[in-house]
């Protein structure tokens, strides 16, 4: 059990600030946010499929290694079409630009 | 799915002539598009074809299946000229219908090819992303600090082929520090360089 004055401080702060945390979606997300610890990528070219005998279809495969708050390491793999990749790249350049100014 | 690759049979060409009952060229055009995009044996499409063309549901099923096979076969082989498509039809096939179908197919073949490519099997696909830059002012281990950090949310869609009409989209939220961001940018730059190299070959 916490000492009484500590509980009073906590209660006071919670009354003032608590709403903004508990109501924001971010609070829920924060608890489940992992850290990216590694990135692997591959540029592939599909040459044939069951629906198109002859293809020249590039795509990007990426695997993010994420350290969960629990300590578990999870891999998240996904694919991007080339337009999606270009969008992805653009977002990261914007992020980097913002980080520079902060 | 070997049926997609198989040539269109005599029986299927015969079934295509049910299209002669269509009230307009637009009805034929619409049906070609719906039959290409539909999954095999779509009962909804068979029912609507039944009423649109005033045919039995058995005839409608044969027509939908034949049109699906014809359009898919043409996309599979990458046929793109009128000559190539016309030569698929048997000699005794109704001339005007053959010309109309060839015309409609030529109009749609590029779009259909793109559709086939975007729905082919793949790993889960990135469909959207959102991000935010925050300043971490404190944590359980450090009382005061000012560390800029990125919060990134990726929306990933599971394999469309497995989910049918109700794709499952999961959101992954991760944090990146500047170092990880720089590594990512470096990697993305290399992908871009490789893409240019491949495009120029």
TrEMBL record, chain A:
InterPro entries according to UniProt: COMM, COMMD4/6/7/8
All residue ranges annotated as the COMM domain in the record: 35-102
Domain of life: Eukaryota
Gene Ontology molecular function, alphabetical: NF-kappaB binding
PROSITE patterns registered for this protein in UniProt: COMM (PS51269)
Coiled coil: none
The family this protein is said to belong to: Belongs to the COMM domain-containing protein 6 family.
Family annotation (PANTHER family): COMM DOMAIN-CONTAINING PROTEIN 4-8 FAMILY MEMBER, COMM DOMAIN-CONTAINING PROTEIN 6
Function: Scaffold protein in the commander complex that is essential for endosomal recycling of transmembrane cargos; the commander complex is composed of the CCC subcomplex and the retriever subcomplex. May modulate activity of cullin-RING E3 ubiquitin ligase (CRL) complexes. Down-regulates activation of NF-kappa-B. Inhibits TNF-induced NFKB1 activation.
Protein name: COMM domain-containing protein 6
Source organism of this protein record: Chelydra serpentina
Automatic annotation (TrEMBL), chain B:
Superkingdom: Eukaryota
CDD domains noted in UniProt: Commd9
Species, as recorded: Chelydra serpentina (Snapping turtle)
Residue ranges constituting the COMM domain according to the UniProt record: 125-199
One Pfam family matching this protein: COMM_domain
Protein name per UniProt: COMM domain containing 9
